[in-house]
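Notes continue from the previous slide.

Worked example: a multi-chain complex. Inputs as given:
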Amino acid sequence: MTKFQAPHLEYSLIAPLLIVLGVATLGVLVEAFVPRERRYLAQTVLALVGTLVALGDTLWVFGKLNPVHGKVHPGFVVGQGSLALDGPALFCWILVLGFSALSILLFAERRLEGGVTAFAGQASALPGTEAEREASTRGLEHTEVFPLMMFAVAGMMIFPAANDLITMFIGLEVLSLPLYLLCGLARRRRLLSQEAAMKYFMLGAFSSGFFVYGMALVYGYAGSMDFAHIATAVASGTGAHALLLGGIGMLAVGLFFKIGAAPFQAWVPDVYQGAPTAVTAFMAAGTKVAAIGALFRVFFVAFGGARWDWMPMAWIVVILTMVVGSLLALAQTDVKRLLAYSSVAHAGFMLTALLGARSLADIGPGNIQPVQAVLFYLTTYGLTNMAAFAIVTLVRDSGGEATSFAAWTGLGKKSPLVAGIFSFLLLGLAGIPLTSGFVGKWAVFTSAMSAGAWPVVIIAVLGSATAAFFYVRVIVLMFFTDGATEGPTVAIPSVLTTVVIAVGAAGSLVLGIVPGPLLDLLGRVGEFIR
Amino acid sequence: MSVTPFIVLSAILFTIGAVGVLTRRNAIVVFMCVELMLNASNLALVTFSRANGNLDGQIAAFFVMVVAAAEVVVGLAIIMTIFRTRRSASVDDASLLKY
């Protein structure tokens, strides 16, 4: 009988993760013990303070990666090899925590709904019944959304930092399960919201089934779940090749699903449209960061040696995602749905960086590395999208948010400021020069180009042109089309939503004009630890 | 001991599950098919664990079971809500969001 050895954990390094999980657990206790009328304040403050403390702590850990004697610190492998805290992982943590802090502000917005949050008063009350009316007259609100969100944040932190397949799977589920629930909690249009939750859940569970089977096949091939061991097994080339190919394919299904890449994008428009807009903003920014981080780690660290095997698949997925996202967005007549399809197209643009995978020796000192490029893209995309969805919550009529194009026609005359900011954000998403979106696109396309993926880059540029068309169409609609004088108004938000819009728009502007410092920073830390 | 029969069995179970998800209409049955996919994966994990001579796969199987249980909690809650609202658990009836 061997003696049990307690695992050694580096508490000071994984503290940000523990703080977020601790805050989530505390949030559950607050639900149980704090009187109903005080819960909103308690939960908001707890979640916001917890996220900001975790963010500060992450920055402190990130500071430890500073070059010593001119040598870049590769990062730390902690928790008995299950988490890798290297530059990309920690930068993903910073992004996830930053976007979460903004999302908490959107979650806590109360002025737009007249004193209550945008979440269902009582999710168990059936829509259109006496119980629902009673819940709304009593001003009930679900403050459970804050702990649920914090659990999702913890999952989003585990996912890109996972250094073996089990941890990655746990991260995937911890991030997904709370999101399924959050999607179904809208106060208005509850049927749509519940439908979105069910579609997201069914397809999400289906795709995680593929992920698990892929995990089993890769384990069968390499004899270990650990990325470093898998990389060794791939390099030595022993073992059944079919297991490896099947495993890579099935793992990719699970990961591409979370990113929303075609042909696994079907859930994106429905879920983005049906979910409460604050949740959509959180999901669009956070999930994308986490899933892209995880995808790049798996494909570069574990399967880097087999890249000639997965490259053809990646080409097809990237091209398909860009084409499907851009073309279907042309046919949309709803702002939220348009942003959803644009997020599919952006997933394709981000994934072009995956095609920039080369052996480290081939990457010259001045070249843009794929990971550096995609992390920059994620920063700009997340900030811009966050602010765009925050603005979507402002345009309202008697039924809540008015998201159809008809309602947005002539918005520039009603509220030039809001329409102006939204136009700026759309131009950023379209990638017009001098906006952050342009720099992001330039970075990912260059990195793909330098690896010789020029056909994809040509399609990507054409896709961007198509995308510019549907973004500009919305701008024309807002400013140069006469709308009905009746119809929706632009609500004045409280300081919470205003902060989100201001931070998103300012971040997008600054990164567009001076992208250099962030690109340099990412160039220094943008390598996975192996 | 040859691992092939076990892996073939797990692949068959997984396929039955995946086809079930794609063809069945009732949300509960679709969900059961997802569970079948997860259990097929567990069989593969345990088999490979035996073949590789280490315990990683068995540990993973336990994690998959725990996650499957958590998924049941969330999934049944969502399906119940839909069923109470619409008096139907058919995945085809929920079709307000499209195109």
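Summary box: Residues 168 and 180 of chain A are 18 Å apart (CA to CA). Chain A is about 70% helix and 0% strand.
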